[in-house]
Amino acid sequence: MLIRLKPVRQVRQICVLLNQPGISQGRNPHLKMSTVISDIGAKGEFLRKDAVFRNWITADGSSGFKAERDRYHLYVSLACPWAHRTLIVRKLKGIEDVIPYTVVDWLMGENGWNFTDKKAKCSPDPLFNAQYVRELYFKANPDYEGRFTVPMLWDKKNNTIVTNESSEIIQMFNSEFNDFCATVEQKELDLYPEHLKAQVDAVNEWIYNDINNGVYKSGFARSQEAYDKAVTQLFASLDRVEDILSKTRYLAGDQLTLADIRLFTTLIRFDLVYVGHFKCNKKRIMDYPNLWAYTRDIYQTPGVAETVDREHIAKHYQASHTSINPFAIVAIGPDLDFNLPHNRDKMAKA
């Protein structure tokens, strides 16, 4: 299906990083505005900061954060690959009625992520009627000086942020809310099984650095040297994944795991925006037989397609990142059919 997108207004570029919104002034006037330039190393390479809030929810509450129905609220952007992970695992585990969520505006302005009810699938903040995500960070910690990122998981009982680290949110959603899953099958689904943890962790490490973050390192590079290094490593690792997927249906064998979810949210955005917008144009995912079929395989996993919003993805990147796209013109994009047969379910089991 051909996606035709409505034009969007141009915005002044202050924060351009999807998962690095980073306006750190808030209640402290002495804090500096953070821009993409401040996240660039001496050789022009893009640097990503670590998440700050790192609490953990447990089924028994031993961590101080107990898994409970309607205690937690998830804030996401449908454009963000890191937030997208959390929506997929939430869906696959059948805990949608347990953890409600709010979608921010796809357009990131000079104050970072904001709430709106003027755009499809976006909604106001239901908890505090905040205008910006950063207000919630300061509510959790008035002296906060970090990034104002999504996804972010809020604890309504303690009025604080549990975590803003997507890799940990999906682990908690996978294992700590099993008492609340909608079906027995969803309760039994384990996307991070004990016998595969070492393998999943190992593949996650290089896929995160070279692919998930690699597209950003390519797109936000501020020197030819930094770009060449990042994009070369990106496609070397895509070649590596292509080889793995020629032998097994999923990254860790015959079973869908968190590693696949983490890779998928980058792959689904690759041909749509990363090829052009981030200059990752050596090859398209469509040019890799196994990667392209694998992307369709995961997309067609029941529930996953519902979490994908091509309009939010295309508009966010191209309208918000005006340091890359100064006139905020949203390209028409390729005609991608993720519902084509993939036949990966017919692969011989390892």
UniProtKB/TrEMBL annotation:
**GO MF, one example:** glutathione transferase activity
What Gene3D superfamilies is this protein classified in?
1.20.1050.10, Glutaredoxin
The source's superkingdom equals Eukaryota
Q: Which Pfam families match?
A: GST_C_2, GST_N_2
- Residues noted as binding glutathione in the record, renumbered to the chain: W113, R147, F148, T149, V150, E165, S166
Q: Which CDD domains match?
A: GST_C_Omega_like
Domain (GST C-terminal): give its ranges. 193-317
Q: Which SUPFAM superfamilies match?
A: GST C-terminal domain-like, Thioredoxin-like
A Gene Ontology cellular component where this protein is annotated is: cytoplasm
Q: Which residues form the signal peptide?
A: none
- Tell me which residues are marked as the site Lowers pKa of active site Cys: Y274, Y317
Active site as annotated: C80 (nucleophile), Y216 (proton donor/acceptor)
Protein name (Swiss-Prot/TrEMBL): Glutathionyl-hydroquinone reductase YqjG-like isoform X1
Q: What species is given as this protein's source? A: Branchiostoma floridae (Florida lancelet)
